Amino acid sequence: MADGEEQALEERLKSALWFSIGKIVDEETLKLGVNATPQFIGALTEMVWAQIENVTIDLKSFAKHAGRSTINTDDVMLLSRRNEGLEAVLRSYVDKQNAGKSNHKKR
């Protein structure tokens, strides 16, 4: 992908993220009866984007260390190991998915 195309894609992704975060912030501020400025939404979007970039780097590193070019569930679980709540939610989801697959194969 050319640099111009890559930059255009990144801008589209950031715009979609800003839109989604804006909707969530609007819903929550209505519930709480407070206001959020566009600057707040912009700053929150930048913070989330930076976190996504960091997660991406970590996931790529985990897959590469395992000798793979594709990120899989094990990489995500490894990333979540320091956040017990997140790890529990993800583990529950993965277990349900795996149970569904094994039940489907038995039919």
From TrEMBL:
MF GO annotations: chromatin binding; DNA binding; protein heterodimerization activity
Keywords (A to Z) from UniProt: DNA damage, DNA repair, DNA-binding
Entry-linked InterPro entries: CENP-S/Mhf1, Histone-fold
Record carries keyword DNA damage: yes
One GO CC annotation: FANCM-MHF complex
Keyword DNA repair: yes
SUPFAM superfamilies per record: Histone-fold
UniProt xrefs under Pfam families: CENP-S
GO biological process terms, semicolon-separated: DNA repair; replication fork processing; resolution of meiotic recombination intermediates
PANTHER family on file: CENTROMERE PROTEIN S (PTHR22980:SF0), CORTISTATIN (PTHR22980)
Family the UniProt entry places it in: Belongs to the TAF9 family. CENP-S/MHF1 subfamily.
Protein name, UniProt field: Centromere protein S
